[in-house]
Amino acid sequence: MRYTEYFDKLASKRVKDRKKHSYYWNSITRYCNYFSHEENSVLEIGCGTGELIHDIKGKRKVGIDFSSKMIEIASGRFQDVEFHNMAAEDIQLNEKFDLIIISNLIGFVDDVQAVFQQLHKVCHSRTKIIITYYNFLWEPLVKFAETIRIKTKTPDQNWLLQQDIHNLLALSGFETYRTVRTMMFPFYIPLLSPFLNRFLVKMPLFRLLALNSFTFAKPISVLNEEIEKKYSVSIVIPARNEAGNIENAITRLPEFGSRQEIIFVEGNSTDNTWDVIQDIQKKYAATHDIKITQQEGKGKNDAVKKGFSISSGDIFMILDADLTMPPEELPKFYNAIASGQGDFIHGSRLVYDMESGAMRLLNLLGNKFFSFVFSWMLEQPVKDTLCGTKVIFNTDYQKLVSNQKFFGNFDPFGDFDLIFGAYKLNLRIIEIPIRYRERTYGSTNISRFRNGVVLLKMCFFAARKIKFI
């Protein structure tokens, strides 16, 4: 690190500078904290005098920095954090972390790619990385602030474009799954600062003027024969008035994973769906592990929660009993999550051509609208939010449930509940295109207008919890 001597000298001023510009630094900490959780192990690379890693949630927190003086100060101030003096280009830790934060560091290192490559030493297959960095368009203003001494002077930095960061991550074996821009005005003025930094900066065009960028990345994984049989699977099938589809859900389901568990959850049917489910369980008892139950409440969300509560697989899947999402497509979802390509997988019905009658025009327009809203809120393209098929690891689902008080029990369908929860858990969300089929039995249980209003209300509610934070 070519700036070691400089930052050793700067160490004594660092604490004062952080306090002087606490509004700016606290905003970075607050945003990183949004995506960390109490059960995480967290590593900060380039921790300086330790303020950020100290304030981050986590069961174990470690900070490393190349400046021995800064590590000395940090160790004296924060006893709950383990600090080490080492260069980012030569990480010497024998431990894997759930979350790694690199805050405003990459501008000062000689070889950014070498730093990223070192991360593999401290990553497991599902580690998440958050990299914070200046928007290069702010360079003249940053230099001016240093000239008039409202900002501590620092050496010249590497000013990288977002595309440069993404490219260097890819070359180092990581994929970028989200980029977020924040902060238009780095000083606190009541009313003005919250308006600019929480609302205006999130709007199209204005986001290009943001000072800070947050890049989210994870290790690139590949599918192999070992992974194909690594995880057991629980497939929850909510069923209301779907008697004619129950047996097909079993006979059309391919084999994948180390073990399959199928859970039918019957919900207030007016036909003989429950009788058929009981018959099917007995008929296929010798070849399939089938559990059956009835929900006490109403709605698909309640049915899914009921099914997951009695599930034991490593991976949870939802398959709608209408079979408009073909069961034959489920191995694609397993492969995507088992190989680490994503942590939360959901289907997209809006890529391939649909069968005639599979989705009515009003439904299609509604899905297009919610696609636009979700793409904006989640900072990534989302084509189809309402496809019933969703896949998540059991361990992540348990975290999502324990964290559910953050959003509240506001979703009767479960789709938004799971997507918003996955975002808050900092999971890699990906879509898999599917061929959406026309129903062969029964009719839809969805009321387009009434449910559409409910979904719209949920979007406004979630925007406050996700976008404008």
Describe the structure in brief.
The chain is α/β, with parallel strands linked by helices and 469 residues long.
Question: Which key terms come to mind for this protein?
Answer:
alpha/beta; Rossmann fold; Spore Coat Polysaccharide Biosynthesis Protein SpsA, Chain A; 7-stranded mixed β-sheet; 17 helices; 14 strands
Could you explain how this protein is built, in words?
Helices cover 37% and strands 19% of the residues. With 469 residues, the chain is an alpha/beta fold. The strands form 2 sheets. A 7-stranded mixed beta sheet has the order 3-2-1-4-5-7-6, sandwiched between helices. A 7-stranded mixed beta sheet has the order 10-9-8-11-13-12-14, with helices on both faces. Helix 1 (4-20) runs parallel beside helix 4 (68-77). The two termini are 35 Å apart. The model has no long low-confidence stretch (mean pLDDT 86).
What is the annotated CATH architecture of the largest domain? Answer: Alpha-Beta Complex
Report, as a whole number of angstroms, the end-to-end distance. Answer: 35 Å
Shape: elongated
Strand order of the largest sheet: 3-2-1-4-5-7-6
CATH topology of the largest domain: Spore Coat Polysaccharide Biosynthesis Protein SpsA, Chain A
Radius of gyration: 25 Å
